[in-house]
Amino acid sequence: MKKVNIQWSLRRGIGVFTVAFPLSLQASDSNEKLPNILLILADDLGYGDLSCQSSSDLRTPNIDRIFKEGMRFTNFYANSTVSSPTRAALLTGRYPDMVGVPGVIRTNEDDSWGYLSPKVVLLPQMLKGAGYQTALIGKWHLGLEAPNLPNLRGFDFFHGFLGDMMDDYYTHLRQGNNYMRLNENTVEPKGHATDIFTDWTLDYLDNLKSDSPFFLYLAYNAPHDPVQPPDDWLAKVKSREKGVSEKRAKLIALIEHLDWNIGKVLDKLQRSGLLENTLVIFTSDNGGVLANGANNGPFRGGKQDMYEGGLRVPAAFMWKNHIQPGSSFNGMALTMDILPTLCNIANVQPAGMLHGVSFRAALEGNPPDTSQRTVFFVRREGNMRYGGMAYYAALRNGYKILQNTPWEPMQAFDLKSDPAESNPLEKKGKEYDYLFRQLTRHIRESGAVPWQKEK
After folding, report:
1. Quick check: 54 and 297 in contact, CB under 8 A?
2. For residues 8 and 423, which has the higher predicted lDDT (pLDDT)?
């Protein structure tokens, strides 16, 4: 392989600076095949809700396989406390409020808090430049109409759900609307949504149209509300976990059912020989829902919270003969870093300014120092708790400031000594002043980005 030094430009409040990592990249004339990419995104899966993440009451052998045969990221953050912003960050490599998605995109425009900028180039569009076939199966959640439909934003193939959550895993409706699509055509599948998305994935892999590599973004709805596992899975959990609450049993069953389906996809790749050269990525869009009995590990809070339980998520990367099995990366990484990492691996120059950085070096066993990286988190929301305003967090080298609703004062924590965020620090000193100023600049900069559709 040809050795190439890549420099990523990052906008960080005061001006622009670059971070350079020495990386082993495929030369443009290399005969080595580019890897297939399978990116699996769970919905509302808590940091501790996998058996490989120290959970004692559930069993997830197939997701565990990705962690055991690949690299575990112990300090991985979702870009937001909720779905749409994190998905926007994933597909743009940028902060979600910098691409028009500070909050959840919904059916009702009066309760929709984002509009993905049509000007931004998305990950599948970039990978197509390297010859990738691009597909999304499952949840989109970045728009319900043109131009923000998957097939119009770089996906050759879409078989999934346009909306936010399903009101029922079997009817697949949201507020009476059917958002299930095959490309741009409405479809009415039968069965549990998790099984449906898996079946569609197996069909896609059976019908790949060429030998060129694929980028398959598999975005499950599970274990998002409603917590609705198949009856036989729930019965199995209740039989095994004596004394488990009904609420927790349902969530365990929904997660184990998800794991079983992911196992079917991995088995398909294994049997077809595709797994030999497929990079498999697994993570979640935000923390688990405490009201549903989620386990967010040792961290405070859950989905919607700017505390670690709302932002820290499980993540692992598996790529045979490229990533050391059983390895780990303890540096900070975020959802938006996946895009530059994949472009790096595919030898594609990302389009436009990125806020994410490639962690390809970490995957190769050369972890970069992330201690001086400053990152920001945002969510805008309506209802009586938020009032249409945004709330934020900022983090550098274990020092974190946050407000958990727009009405609350800022808090500060030292995550190195207090990962549970139980002992707020005094709001003074160089670290606090620095993060507060940088967050203020970020808010000012993102304020110039529209997040509503023009009337």
Report:
1. yes
2. 423
pLDDT at 10 over 60: no
Instruction: Decide the pairing of beta strands 333-334 and 76-77.
Output: parallel
Work out the number of other CB atoms within 10 angstroms of the CB of residue 204: 19
Q: Which residue do the tokens 């690299």 mark?
A: 71
Helix (H) or strand (E) holding 235, with range, is helix 231-240
Q: Could you tell me if 273 and 232 are in contact, meaning their C-beta atoms sit under 8 angstroms apart?
A: no
d(CA 196, CA 190): 8
Q: List the domain boundaries for the chain.
A: 34-373, 375-446
- Percent of the chain having pLDDT more than 70? 93
Q: Strand pairing of 36-42 and 16-24?
A: unpaired
Q: Any idea what the Cα angle at residue 318 is, between residues 93 and 193, rounded to 5°?
A: 75
Amino acid at 396: R
pLDDT tens-place string over residues 23-45: 333 333 345 789 999 999 999 99
Cβ atoms of 344 and 25 within 8 Å: the answer is yes
Three-class SS of residue 185?
A: strand
Q: How many CB atoms lie within 10 A of CB 11?
A: 17
What is the rounded distance in angstroms from the CA atom of residue 356 to the CA atom of residue 367?
16
Query: For residues 196 and 182, what is the distance between their CA atoms, to the nearest angstrom?
Result: 12
Name 10's bridge partners: 17
Bridge partner list, 174: 177
Type of residue found at 146: A
Instruction: Report residue 441 as tokens.
Output: 């600049």
Q: How far apart are CA 318 and CA 438, in angstroms?
A: 35
Class of domain 34-373: alpha beta
**Residue whose structure tokens are 């809700």:** 49
Q: How far apart are CA 79 and CA 92, in angstroms?
A: 12
pTM over 0.85: yes
In angstroms, rounded to a whole number, what is the distance separating the alpha carbons of residues 439 and 394? 6
Please give the span between the terminal C-alpha atoms of the chain, in angstroms, as a whole number: 51
Residue 111, classed as helix, strand or coil, is helix
